[in-house]
Specification:
The chain is an alpha+beta fold and 210 residues long. The chain has seven helices and ten strands.
């Protein structure tokens, strides 16, 4: 993946017209909405926020580059340098955020912090599997409370048995998170600290959509 592709894949928080968080999209998608004048940039500064249309955001890039270059990721072309916004607001969208937390591979990996729940090792997502604690062949359900991350080795060792039958111990009992686990992970990074102004307890279940 090229450096430009990596920057365009960074995540941007999307607010509805009422300044409520509704989703997270890629920077690529955010720039499309800005170019179509369907959204504006929201910049958080010392607890307050400023609104910029896309043309103004481009115009202030030189000041950002001079005074806070490390605070942004940058899109660079032969003709322009522009900071990737962290937050945008839609002009014509009033819907409320979806509070349902989807049971999917991405959210399960985030809940378990990419750690095998048997050996405790930390692995890249491509080297992890999902394990039914009580196997499906023994009546186990496909639910938050019965699914955990497992490395390939531990999953193969456990096979179609329960942890007790395989003489293996879970590091932590699986659970359904109260907040979207992917968002929770991002909020722990300084890069996304500005999101906290719009992500109170009621809106931490925002869905991730590319």
């Amino acid at each position: 993946m090229t450096a430009l592709a990596m920057v365009l894949d960074e995540k941007v928080l999307v607010l509805n017209r009422l300044y409520m968080a509704v989703r997270v999209v890629s920077a690529r998608r955010a720039f499309v909405m800005l170019c179509k004048q369907a959204a504006e940039v929201i910049a958080v500064d010392n607890g307050s926020y400023l609104n910029y249309d896309f043309e103004t955001w481009i115009e202030i890039a030189q000041l950002q580059k001079e005074f806070e270059p490390a605070a942004h990721s940058w899109i660079r072309t032969p003709h322009i340098e522009i900071a990737v916004p962290k937050i945008i607001r839609l002009f014509g969208y009033d819907r409320f955020p979806d509070k349902h937390i989807k049971l999917n591979r991405r959210n399960l990996y985030a809940r378990d912090s990419n750690r095998c729940q048997y050996c405790g090792g930390h692995f890249p997502s491509k080297e992890l599997t999902l394990d039914h604690v009580i196997p499906r062949i023994q009546g186990g359900e496909h639910t938050w409370g019965n699914l955990v991350c497992a490395c390939v080795s531990c999953n193969a060792r456990k096979g179609g048995r329960t942890p007790r039958q395989a003489n293996m111990k879970l590091r932590r009992r699986p659970f359904k998170p109260k907040r979207n686990p992917v968002i929770t992970l991002r909020l722990g990074r300084q890069k996304y600290s500005s999101w906290k102004a719009f992500l109170d307890e009621a809106y931490w279940t925002v869905e991730l959509k590319d």
